[in-house]
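Case study 2.
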Amino acid sequence: MAAHLIFPSLLNLPANVKLSSLCFYTTLLVLLSGFLNPRLHAQGVEVDVTALVPVGIGSIGGPQGAMVTQVLSTDLHRTGMITPVGAGSGDFQATGDSTGSGLTGKLVNKKTGTEIFTQTFSGTGRAPIHEFADAITQAVTGIPGFASSKLAFISSAGGAKELYLADIDGASARAITHDHTISASPSFSRDGGKLAYTSYKSGYPDVYVIDLASGSRNRIAFFPGINSGPSFSPDGSQIALTLSKDGNPEIYTMSTNGGSPNRITRTRGSETSPAWSPTGDRLVYSSDDHGSPQLFISTAQGIGEMDHLVTGNSYCTKPDWSPDGKSIAFTTRISGQFQIGVYNVASRTAQLSTTSGGENPVWTRDSRHFVYDNNGRLYLLDTATRQSLPVDMNITGCSEPTVSR
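Prediction:
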């Protein structure tokens, strides 16, 4: 099947293109997409991206009421689909009571007077607030919220590249490795309970899995050569990764507990950065078998021909498949600068999502936003509005984010 690129100049610009031309075409793309298709379909629900759902934040009782109100409002605003307003305003009204062990939240449809839910969210700190925000988002838009997601990333702030963990809004960021060596390519399990990553702790690139509840760490791939780029399958039973134990770096799958790997690719090139489809039956990855890094899809068993995804650009790496299965975000290189593109699986077309640089995109659970890094900082991009917000952290040298879903 032929592949086509939407506005191919955005993903295949000549070296001497002027920035003003890029800005013009990007602006044109945004305007046309909003004019021609002001509605998006996500998780089977039609959402008007030109209008925000007003949700009134009413009384939040308890000693931390003011803090709860602030965090809840920020979480809802970050969705890009909801605008938090004052008590007594909006189409919906959210109220609650907070204690030291949780938060009881209530949401009412003001137009009908119907109570949508009253729910208790257990836990300490900000976690119950994020869960309340996600419940509101799901109720008023039909799309999953991502405020309760965790964010893991690599930072060189302490001199070595260590693995860090934070809330997706940047709060509570902390290092979870202190190995004083290189850590790379973290990946969350779908339930958010485990992290796989590459570490040079032994002096060589090996793959480890950390159980976040217990803190235990297990080295699962330590074959001769490269062991890198792990990615959890949707059911958490397998990891896809790059191994060079048989020669060229190739894609393999193996149990999350270790053991014998199953080889997926067999080419003369190098294969890296595997990511699973949400159904777990396919893998997307980068390969330079055609001369430069390109994106390919294979079955999760390595059976049949590989599908080459033509994006219109000669350099494509670090793909990530959206949870709804409709899109693949990836890193591309344009005139020497890394940018992020998004490939539409159904139409087999690609669009540019950034114009000021970006790498290593990873989708949130709503399939609308992704987190990426640029110049040592992390950002959240809304693909419907193409607006980026910095993840607010006092940590520098950040890269390679991954988000729990």
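The two ends are 32 Å apart (CA to CA).
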